[in-house]
Design a protein that fits this description.
alpha/beta, about 30% helix, globular, Quinone Oxidoreductase, Chain A, domain 1, 6-stranded parallel β-sheet, Rossmann fold, 7-stranded mixed β-sheet
């Protein structure tokens, strides 16, 4: 194990948040029963919020950010893992209350770790990251709610982002007609290459919601929230379901009970942070089965650890297409 390692550290100076490149020792790490040599991390929307301080993601300072990591176990006192095992970790308070993935070493609880499926390298696992893992959780939620390709198309909002890109690719491979909503018309070819059949402009879903609109889709994956989610719900077919996992457009939801009690629409809340381990393992195994690796590569860009600050600004500004992998 390295005696000193590189990391990014967020600290607080009065009301200001400062992000530094630092060198630490293993003794500086937080408690845990597994130490991981981190190979790759990623940049999700939540990472952008944490690094910029625009939302109170970080609850304890100083903090190593990065809500995801993938790497190799160096030391373990947890019986489920041994040195040399490849592992992946999403959420569980990383970057919030526990040191995260923007570090060459991480010490965590083994109960948080998922064995890395043999189908993926650590880089591919972080090309998926929390965004792609959340997209898979949304697909599982829609399946559990009875949404099938035979019942009609499925909408994906924020389709050019991380969650959206993986959701489009997954749903298309599973046989759904995918309608992709984006505010970036220049991404139409990209989204169709991922499997989208139809593109809907963001503006079409951002106006004042009606209590009930025309029935257009049997299900939806929404990472936007607010007015967009309200419009999505109002246009969901009878008995359909919407998996909601994000708040890029806001935390409010200006809707009514009409779609729920007149059309039997289900709103499915999808959390990725505290998801129990069996569902995490199921999601990663399904990703190994149902995600086209070539499409994953097409939506992925790799950056060095030094590039995460700019990436944080870009992802919050809606300038990031697909997924970013961070080489640690």
């Amino acid at each position: 194990m390295k005696s000193r390692f590189k990391a990014i550290l967020i600290r607080k100076d009065g009301d200001n948040q400062i992000v530094d490149d630092v060198e630490l020792t293993p003794d500086d790490l937080m408690p845990g029963d597994v130490t991981v040599a981190v190979a790759h991390s990623t940049v999700n929307f939540k990472d952008g919020l944490a690094l910029t301080g625009r939302s109170p993601v970080v609850r304890k300072f100083p903090m190593i950010p990065g809500i995801d990591l993938a790497g190799t176990v160096e030391e373990s006192s947890n019986p489920a893992f041994k040195a040399g095992d490849k592992v992946v970790l999403n959420g569980f308070g990383l970057s919030e209350a526990h040191y995260g993935g923007y570090s060459e070493l991480a010490r965590v609880k083994g109960d948080w770790l998922v064995p890395l499926p043999s189908a993926f390298t650590t880089a591919q696992a972080m090309a998926i990251g929390t965004a792609g893992y959340t997209a898979m959780l949304c697909v599982l939620a829609l399946e559990d709610a009875g949404v099938t390709p035979a019942k009609g198309p499925v909408l994906v909002t924020g389709a050019a982002g991380g969650v959206g890109s993986v959701a489009v690719a997954l749903l298309a491979k599973l046989g759904f007609k995918v309608i992709a909503s984006t505010g970036r018309p220049e991404e139409e070819a990209y989204l169709k290459d991922l499997g989208a059949s139809e593109i809907v402009a963001r503006a079409e879903l951002s106006g004042q919601p009606r209590m009930l609109g025309k029935e257009r889709w049997a299900g939806a994956v929404d990472s936007v929230g607010s007015t967009t989610l309200a419009n999505v719900i109002s246009q969901t077919m009878y008995g359909g379901a919407v998996a909601a996992c994000g708040l890029a457009g806001g935390m409010d939801l200006p809707t009514s009970v009409a779609p729920f009690i007149l059309r039997g629409v289900s709103l499915l809340g999808v959390d990725s942070v505290q998801m129990p381990k069996p569902r995490r393992v199921q999601a990663w195994n399904r990703l190994a089965q149902d995600l086209d690796i070539a499409k994953l590569a097409a939506m992925t860009k790799t950056i060095p650890l030094s590039g995460v600050r700019q990436a944080a600004e870009d992802i919050l500004a809606g300038k990031v297409r697909g997924r970013l992998v961070v080489e640690i």
